[in-house]
Amino acid sequence: MARGLFSWAWLRKPYYIQARLSYMRMKYFFFSWLAVFIGSWVVYVQYSTYTELCRGQDCKNTICDKYRKGVIDGSACSSLCDKETLYLGKCLSTRSNNQVYMGSWGDLEAVIKCQMEEAVRFDLGADTEPRKGAVLFDKPTKGTSVEKFKEMVFSHLKAKVGDQANLLDLVGLIISVADGNKDGHISLPEAKSTWALLQLNEFLLMIILQDKEHTPKLLGFCGDLYVMEKVQYTSLYGISIPWIMELFVPSGVRRSMDQWFTPSWPRKAKISIGLLEFVEDIFHGTFGNFLMCDTSANNFGYNAKHDLKMVDMRKIIPEVTFKDLIRDRHCETDEDCVYGMDCRTTCDQTKKKCTTEVIQPNLAKACQSLKDYLLRGAPPEIREELEKQLYSCIALKGTADQMEMEHSLILNNLKTLLWKKISHTKDS
Length: 428
Description:
The chain has 428 residues and is of the alpha+beta class. It has 14 helices and 13 strands. The protein has helices spanning 2-53, 56-68, 77-82, 146-161, 167-178, 188-197, 201-208, 243-246, 251-260, 265-282, 319-326, 362-375, 380-394, 404-422, and strands spanning 86-91, 98-105, 108-115, 218-222, 225-229, 290-292, 300-302, 308-310, 316-318, 338-339, 343-344, 347-348, 353-354. A 5-stranded antiparallel β-sheet has the order 1-2-3-5-4, with helices on both faces. Strands 6-9 form a two-stranded antiparallel sheet. Helix 10 (265-282) packs antiparallel against helix 12, helix 12 packs antiparallel against helix 13 and helix 13 (380-394) packs antiparallel against helix 14 (404-422). The chain is globular, with a radius of gyration of 28 Å.
């Protein structure tokens, strides 16, 4: 009997092995199919996102069509549309209607920015810049004289930056830039391009700060496409990794990685001094006060010499413009009174309207961005004093007008502390 059972078990063994192998094959097939499905879906989503965000060819076609019809003109038009020496390379766009590309213009490396469509109303929550014109390139109209165009520019700038005593000087700078071919005359197509660009905060700021060290140089324009100097390193810290890896890296680990991949501390100190100097440049500058409404680390970069360079200035706006934007905004709480990421006011509960005075000045927001950046790896002999000064800076409240002396004192003390520590090093 036992012998018979043993024989029966021996005969069943191959069937058991076959069934198990079949199960393993099915399991392997299922998980392989699942991996292919998920991978294909991720690739499809990323490709769809890329094609939606990166519309450089559409941008070029639109601009060149207007140029060839004689509607617009500018210093970059011929290179973009005729000679094709202005090349749009790697796409950096984060919004479909704000096209940003790495590229080249002849032998120069550059960043090209193009507005694909127009925001027809002010929107405090949008990433696009507020623009008023109903149709691009419709102003000035045919028959407008240069003097009339100057009056238009003067009125626009007065509304944008306020009634500054030297506003005519700024008009002169604009007219000089508008003469794209430098023939001493402003054509109607050049004027139309310039007028469209003047609706953009970043373009205006590049002209106002064109002689400042920390502002990328404006290289040229065509319509509302403009070309600016390339910044070699496009974030204060961090490392660029393939998007497929980004999906699997937890946010906490990503933040730690950002802190690991930073320059040496003396170089970070030099970059930080550059940011403090930029805050000085836009604080009661030549043509008024500007507000930094997004102090994210990816808006600041630096070059090979570790000099700070601004990467994205679209959310740096004239204080006058900000007050006009937010004055009549309806609110229920203070959270309704925010422009960009960092320009916050309070909600007047009696009127249900936003007030116009920002809670934090530029310097406090800059120090908040620099706190972890500077304290990590700081020399022990200055760490305590550095931390104290940074927290005093972050604690600044109200407008800089109300505390100008304190603002200047904190800024100068912080710069002095950093310079004293790095002035004797090769990194300075």
